[in-house]
Amino acid sequence: MPGGVAVFDYDNDGRPDIFFVNGALQPSLGKSGPDWYNRLYRNLGDWQFEDVTETAGLRGEGYGMGVAAADYDNDGWTDLLVTSVGFSRLYRNRGDGTFEDVTAKARIPATGWPISAGWFDYDNDGRLDLFIVNYCVWNPATEPFCGDLKAGYRTYCHPKYYEGLPNTLLHNNGDGTFSDVSRESGVGAKPGKGMAVAFADYNGDGRIDALVTNDTAPNFLFRNDGAGRFTEVGLPAGVAIIDDGKVLSSMGAEFKDLDNDGRPDIFVTALANETFPYFRNLGAGLFEDLTYRSRIGAASIPHSGWSAGVFDFDNDGWKDIFAANGDVQDNTEVFSNRASKQRNQLFRNRGDGTFESTLLGSAAQHRGAAFGDLDGDGRIDAVVTRLNEPAVVYRNTSGEGNLWLGVKLIGRKSNRDAIGARIRVVVGGREQFWTVSTAGGYLSSNEKTAHFGLGKAQRAEVVEVAWPAGGKTVLKDVKAGRVITVAEE
Q1: Which of the residues 84, 222, 330, 364 has an alpha carbon 20 to 30 A from that of 471?
Q2: Which of 309, 195, 335, 328 is nearest to 271 (CA)?
Q3: Which CA distances in Å does 106 have to 94, 179, 453?
Q4: CA 289, chain centre distance (Å)
């Protein structure tokens, strides 16, 4: 299932760095050593990276799963939450190139089997809260045999053999500690088999909502009702299951506006023979399943997808979709006509409601994927993890001749990350929208600078920022081909 990856600027030098989560086995289980540790690579520029794991203090422990990056204490430095089988670790960025494990001090609880996590400000108090997605109750001592004894092979067991876990919501108290509000908020009201979380204000009420994908269980859509309460509305909203009534092995999630109508849509990866669902936001709290009409269904059905990214990779003004593919099993060929190792997939947005699929890279068991502009050329690059192989970095060379605009936000001192802010850009009379977040995909965390493709336009007529605490900042006639910094007044 692992591992995750984060693209984030840990040293504030303007170049996104890369953090990898590894399945680092405990010495008591017979394996340990440098190859099993987490890894932090500092971006030196010109596609050169330096391993700074040891000096940064991020080697980690246990069997790592995912990572979530954000500035939870509003000191201007991006921190990391790392999930592992049985526990999570919160690493505070000291701002001097090192991180401090503040898990106990911050009161981050062990939650069984935490998988993905994400930062968002659900109560708009200027402090980032933490959402932890939990998977199943698992005990290696009682693990059943799955596979075929007679044929002589073993497989990973189906999720139906395990009891699900509720998700966890931790409120940021502003003093370096967190309070578990899972029960009273409604987030922990019922168990799922969670895999990923993504955030957006899907109903336009000014409050950030949370989408959680579940493995062989209906997906959750937690509507933020305000006053610290959430209602799970996945089924009536139309995103819990697909149109034919099937529950999928839902994996990665993206919660972004794919058709430029101002309403965040939903893209989910799943396993082979299930499709990768695409739910279009119709407004009024409802979504429409456009998986097949968008041409994503037929193109995705042979593949098993894990992490995902929705970005305008060719800078034509329409957000595209990247899916990290690979089968669950590492011996799929023994019992089926499918392959364990699969190529990744790009769904290019044609701007007419349909997507064109392209396979890229070599076949592998891909898992986590994170995105950011690693070389500062205005094109979003991708970093993808692979099971039992080195990770792969994709340098984006598409969209030659198209222009772009990056928007970096600085909130008031009470929320330096400005996560949850909504950005509207007008180019040639057409609108694009972006909600600032580092969460999305599966197990992974993305660069938080908002990215807009402008096509051939030399400038954006309008850049409008709606801040989480209220108020707007409007810029006009903004020149393309650069990253602008917008500070909340």
Answers
A1: 222
A2: 328
A3: 15, 9, 39
A4: 21
Least confident of 102-111, 135-144, 213-222: 135-144
| Secondary structure E strands in 235-365 | 253-256, 265-268, 278-283, 286-289, 305-311, 320-325, 342-349, 355-364
Residue 414: the pLDDT is 66
What's the pLDDT score for residue 31? Answer: 52
| Helix H or strand E segment including 66 | strand 64-70
Residues ≥6 apart with Cβ < 8 Å to 91:
57, 58, 79, 80, 81, 82, 99, 100, 101, 102
The counts of H helices and E strands in the chain are 6, 38
Nearest residue to 450 (alpha-carbon basis) of 489, 488, 417: 417
Residue matched to tokens 């041409």: 295
Q: How many Å apart are CA 264 and CA 257, to the nearest integer? A: 4
Q: Which candidate, 307, 422, 462, places its Cα nearest to that of 370?
A: 307
Q: Going by DSSP bridges, is the β-strand pair 482-487/403-410 parallel, antiparallel, or unpaired?
A: parallel
DSSP 201-252: -TTSSSS-EEEEEEBTS--EEEEEEETTEEEE-HHHHT-SS-TTSPPPB---
Locate tokens 């998988």: which residue? 115
- Kind and range of the H or E element at 55? helix 53-56
d(CA 98, CA 100): 7
What is the per-residue pLDDT for 33?
52
Q: What is the pLDDT of residues 430-450, one digit of tens each?
A: 999 999 999 999 999 999 999
